[in-house]
Amino acid sequence: MMKKNVAAFALLLATLALSGCGKGTVSTASGKSSDATSSVSHPLTLAAVTGLAYQNGKLTFNAVTGAEGYKVVITHQGESVYSSSVMATEVDLSSLELAGNLLAKVKAYKGLEESPEASLEFVVKVAFGDIVIEAENNLYNFGTGKDTSNFRNNTLAHGGAYVGGVDDAGQGVYINYLSPVAGTFAFDAYYTTDMNPAYNDVWVNGVSVARFAFSEKTGWGGASSYNAAMATVNIPLVKGWNTISVMKNGDSTDNWGSYAELDYFVLHGDKSEYNPDDLSAYGSHPSAYRLEAEMGSPRKKNADTKLNTVKNPCIKEDATNKYSNGFLMGGIESAYDGVEWHFYSEEKAQYTLKAGYASGQDGAYLSFYVSQAAIALTHDADFADMIEKGQLQDLSSIANELIATGKYNTSAFQGTGYKGGKYYGLPSGTQHMLLYYNKDLFDQYNTANPTAKLAYPSGDWSQASTFSEIAEDARKLSGGDGASRHFGLSAGPYLAYAGMYSVNSGGENIFDKEGNCVIKSQSFYDVFDWFDTMLKTDKSMPSTSDTATSSAIDRFLGGNIAMIIDGVWQLHDMIKYTSFNVGIAAIPVKSTAYLSHTTTFTDEFFAVKTSKTPIQDQIALRYLQRAESIAALAEKQVGGFPVYKDDVATYTAGLASSKIKDYLNVITGGLDSAVSVPYSTYYNIVDQRINQKMAPWINGEISAHDFVDYMDEMMQKGMRGEL
After folding, report:
1. Structure pTM?
2. Which CATH number do you get for residue 106?
3. What is the CA radius of gyration of the chain?
């Protein structure tokens, strides 16, 4: 599935994980707590608080005779990070994830009377732990070597996306990272490849330091499976800003380094403690952005067609000619030949631009063109981090206006772009899951078994087929051995879809209404027992090894799998690439007592808070949400199902004459049965930990219930900030 997105130039800081301060980490200006004069006008009877101290996440002080309680305020760089009235003389701050130079102020009180204020300056250090870096967040280009985006959305990939299309040497991702300490650190890359051995080189601060060997043949990532493998190198970092390039290299002797796709990286810190406020000396972003030509999107006019393309392989350095990062962008011969970068700048300002170049003739010159996108479209997995970092404008006034008309799909507005009663995103469209089935395989089975025919899966969202019915169908439609084996059903047992199946079993979607994780519950056990039977007992469902060389969707399109649960983004492939009759049904349920629900993904427009033109941004967003604008996308079936209700018919009109024309009501029925993925700042790392445990479950090393318990454990740890 390909969706629009923006490749962001990410400025990554070490995750703040609270570490209890040991000896020497608590201090005051004079080495003692200080007192100040109270503002209470009547005679004082309450003494000032004494004995202020901080250690191991707890603020303590001595009790004051006659006090009813204590007012405690903690500030960081002048901003309040904690304010409360307490009765006890010990305040547990460990859950607040405090870090840096802090100031605690405490007053005793009795009725309206307050004691003089006592204060304590102290430092909370953090441990340099594991840092997760998304490949897609460090991509300067939309099309190196291909006409399509290198940013690839995939809900099963870490962070919901990965980087593909890295086809020519010199291309890859380019990371700016602020390291809190200097040293050599383990650096993991999570990748997929179907053409091993493959490798990528790693350059740090302009020096080649290591090579990733992508030795495991994982298969390419698809909509129904994504099985990233890990490779590890060691890289040196200086304290402060570092540039890390992970790039394809090679020549004709080794297929140019072969081909791999990049999901994410993990930098393993050495657990040393540091004061994050000390890093302010390095600035919130590098003093300069270094834009390597080979890391951008090449632009070159084709001499034969006269069309501008994105194909212009770089020139590799040799023993005589040395280039920055080892490559040079050559072949810039016609007007508008060159390179294009997409990156995020912290500030809108005038910048000095320096270019390193070589020319074989006099009078050559370079022209620069700069544009800025203050509004953009992204998928819902991104919103939690952007909202948490305060990067987005509040779009509540627009959202409330649209919802009030009654003409928009209001559930689409309740995705991850909505938080704390405010709307930071405006939905462009939604995409949900369906059950596709090969009608011809059902018909062939029924012809061979006239007294025990199989019914087609139900397209009624209020009376969907049950888990047991689908499992039985899948068992009967499976057969063969080894490479010739065919399967009854493909349905990813992933976290993104688990909530959907749980709701269809009478349970909750990962969390209850109070925000408590409910994975460790009967509905989840029932769901994974269903999967367990099909994977291990009936062997009617392909395992990850079965889809390593050919994805589940490719197997279905080729007639090897009878049923598959996948998204509406596959509708056109179902029409275009199948030689059989395709049926479409609702997502199965545990019992017909439950309504069928479907996991739904939403792309949303946002506006960056740093924009200098917020009024114009919101005017543009209002136009993008108008019925006419949405209809223009709907006519081409672009951007998912329209959020403007009247335009849904426009979207489906393009399908009305196709081989799936009889299932339009089934397809649109899913719009009213949405279950959203509960993305959060910790969801993606939880998802990846669970995916890594999936193979031991599928291989029979742990039970389905043990796997569910592990899912719950990882989510609980994520909620507590322990991952």
Report:
1. 0.57
2. 2.60.40.10
3. 29
